Amino acid sequence: MRTFLSGCLFSALLAFSLAACHTGGRSDPPAAVNDSTRFTTIEWLDSSYRNFGTINEGQKLDVSFRFRNTGTTPLVIGRVQPSCGCTVAEQPKEPIAPGAEGQIRATFNSEGRPGVNHKTLFVTSNTKGKQTWSLMFSVVVDKKS
Fold first, then answer.
1. Which residues contact 3 (CB under 8 A, 6 or more apart)?
2. Is 2 among the domain residues?
3. Cα–Cα dist 80/125, whole Å
4. Rounded-to-5 percentages of helix, strand, coil across the chain
5. Is residue 137 in some structural domain?
6. Which value, in Å, is the radius of gyration of the alpha carbons in the chain?
7. What are the b/e assignments for 100-136, b being 16+ CB within 10 Å?
8. What pLDDT does residue 55 have?
9. Is residue 84 part of a domain?
10. Is residue 16 in some structural domain?
11. DSSP 8-class letter at 40
């Protein structure tokens, strides 16, 4: 009986751990991000810092940062990590061909976040020179009346 309960507890913890770790995307950057023979270059078409002015508390703000692969090998966005849980990021699922464009998208939920908000998206890619980029945005959230 004790073995059966231990096994059930282990299975439940394993299932919970897997569900809690699921982020909807890759948890670890693919091997291409660290393989220097596959490095490429990137050009950010939008500023890496954007100010979105003022929104009302409770409103969701969609942001995007466009880029172009200026290198000769496919650009792999291995991971996009927001600086906090109030922002959910999306990343391209497929490599971006040389010369092609892509974008990093995110949604900021302003509920419970009145005042000035500065948020960062940390982007990991297979780019020469540096593999981690910081994309930042700010927004002022007007408190609900």
1. none
2. no
3. 9
4. 20, 45, 35
5. yes
6. 19
7. eebbbbbebebeebeeebebbbebbbbbeeebebebe
8. 98
9. yes
10. no
11. B
Of 115, 53, 103, 64, the residue nearest 87 (C-alpha):
64
Helix (H) or strand (E) holding 56: strand 49-56
Task: State the total domains in the chain.
Answer: 1
Range of the domain at 71: 27-142
**64 near 102, Cβ under 8 Å?**
no
Cβ contact 104:89 at 8 Å: yes
pTM for this entry: 0.77
Q: How many helices (H) and strands (E) does the chain have?
A: 1, 8
Encode the chain (145 residues) as per-residue pLDDT tens digits: 544 444 444 444 333 333 333 333 444 567 778 788 889 999 999 999 999 999 999 999 999 999 999 999 999 999 999 999 999 999 999 999 999 999 999 999 999 999 999 999 999 999 999 999 999 999 999 998 8
In angstroms, rounded to a whole number, what is the distance separating the alpha carbons of residues 101 and 97? Answer: 8
Q: Which two tokens stand for residue 38?
A: 């596959």
Pick from 107, 110, 122: which is nearest to 63 by CA? 107
